[in-house]
Each structure stands twice: as structure tokens, then as C-alpha cells.
Design goal:
The chain has 252 residues and is an alpha/beta fold. It has 8 helices and 7 strands, in the order E-H-E-H-E-H-E-H-E-H-E-H-H-H-E. The chain has helices spanning 19-30, 42-50, 69-83, 106-134, 155-175, 196-200, 202-210, 220-229, and strands at residues 10-14, 34-39, 59-63, 88-91, 137-142, 180-187, 242-245. Helix 3 packs parallel to helix 4. The protein starts with 9 loop residues before the first strand and ends in a 7-residue tail after the last strand. Bound molecules: NADP nicotinamide-adenine-dinucleotide phosphate (NAP).
Length: 252
Amino acid sequence: MISYSLAGKAALITGSSRGIGYAIGRRLAQAGCDVALVGRNESAVKAAAETLLPLGVRSVGLAADIGKTAEAQAVPRRVVDLFGRLDILVNNAGMSIRTPALEVTEDLWDKTLDTNLKGMFFCSQSAASHMVKQGVGSIVNIGSVQSFVAQRNQAPYDASKGGVVMLTKVLATEWARYGIRVNCVAPGSIRTEINRDYLSRPENLQKNLSMIPLGRIGDPEDVAGMAAFLCTEDASYITGATILVDGGWTLE
Ligand SMILES: NC(=O)c1ccc[n+]([C@@H]2O[C@H](COP(=O)([O-])OP(=O)(O)OC[C@H]3O[C@@H](n4cnc5c(N)ncnc54)[C@H](OP(=O)(O)O)[C@@H]3O)[C@@H](O)[C@H]2O)c1
């Protein structure tokens, strides 16, 4: 049960045909917000958007690859064309391919950084150009515990997620004067497609569980609640912050 309303607002959530992004889209729609979901697979993202229509909001699925700068820049404009405004951007699209650092190719480095960090910047820049005109806006970037804690075989991913925290801070400082707040949610181990193979191995599951004081792997909804809260009036004095949603992973 949520107590706030985002009725009349419009949100763009990247990487939202499934997993954490979809859960965030659903939580925002439950609060009355119109939502635009984004993914590379057009039929999947359109199907995901349709499932939110019964909540009584406008919900559209847009195909775009956030790792391609022109597409990352275009999606906020498409949302403004569709909904007439853009109040909320959740930069959630991300990828991770576990590879020992000695074997990381330039292609893997570029794909990871282009999706997780460069796309986040250019999508934010494009969205902010509309939010500046409105005089208000909220941007939420999805980081990771790996913004703070290194994991082996994840050099490009960890570098990108470290960058997400600093990008959040610099955009928050620059755009506060326009009424735009920029925050980051850093999830711990959340059960989604991105880590399905990894967590399917009992030794990996046990390793992760042993790091989590709350004793369970997280659900996408655990992250969605915090991301949505940061877009509400209750969070109007919060900017530049990174909130860990990790069951205590980073405490010890
Ligand atoms: N799950 C975790 O444990 C965890 C922990 C910390 C942080 N995170 C972060 O949370 C975010 C979401 O992860 P998830 O676990 O929900 O992953 P997921 O289940 O694999 O979902 C990823 C979503 O992003 C879309 N996507 C991927 N690359 C994209 C691109 N280049 N352009 C547009 N859409 C793209 C995918 O759809 P298409 O494939 O159709 O494009 C899908 O909808 C990521 O930034 C991830 O790093 C996850």
C-alpha cells in the first residue's frame, strides 16, 4: 500500500521490459503516473507496457538501445511527444557479463560503459532539457553495491557503476538550480534475469546469502519502492544521494 500520488506526472524508465525496471514502472503506475517503458526487444517491452494499462494510467512500450547515444537522446523526446511532459526519468538499463579482467575485450568494455554510463548521461541530458523548461524533475539512476565494493570478473561493470554514483552527484549539483533532483539507488543481490545463471549455482547463492545480514536475496519490488519514493514530494529535500538497498551487504 502506498500513500503518495504521482497522478498527472509522466515517467520514463529505461531497461524496463522485465526485472527491476519493470517493477519500478509498475510502482510508479500504481501511484497514478503515466509510464513509458524502454527495452531493445520491441515486442517484449510493448507486452510489458500493456500489463500496466489495468492500473488506469497511460502506459507505452518503446524500443530503444540506450547503449546507442542517438537512441538514448531520442527517448525522452518521444515521451514528451506522447505524454506532453516528462517529470521522472529512471536510468535503469544495464548489462553485466562476467569476464576475468585479463580477458576483457575493447568491445565488452565499450558495450558495458556505453549502456551503463554513457547512455545514462545522454538520456539524462536530453530529459533534463525538457525538465528545465518545466522547472521541476526527478532523475533516479540505478547503481549497485558494486559502485562501492569490487567483485572479481566484473571490471567494466564495477567501473561503470562506480561512475554512476559520481555522475549522480555532479548532475545533482548542476541541475538543482532548475528544480531537478538527481539521486541513485544502489541495489544488492536482486533476483532477476541478469544474475539468473549465477544464482542458479548453489555455491554462488550461498556465497551471496552469507554476505547479506537480512538473510535473503532481494526482489525487484524492494528496489522499486525506494526508486518511486525518491520521485515523490516526500523526497523533495533529497538530491545527489545514493541509497543502498542491499539487505545490509555493504555493512561488514
Ligand atoms: N539484479 C541485481 O542483482 C542487480 C544488482 C545491482 C544493480 N542492478 C542493476 O539494476 C538494473 C536492472 O537490472 P536487472 O537485474 O533488472 O536486469 P534484467 O532483468 O536483465 O533486465 C534488464 C532490462 O534492461 C533492458 N536492457 C538491457 N540493455 C538495454 C539497452 N542497451 N537498452 C535498453 N534496454 C536495455 C532489458 O531488455 P532488452 O534485453 O529487451 O533490452 C531488460 O528490460 C541494471 O542497471 C543493473 O546493473 C541489478
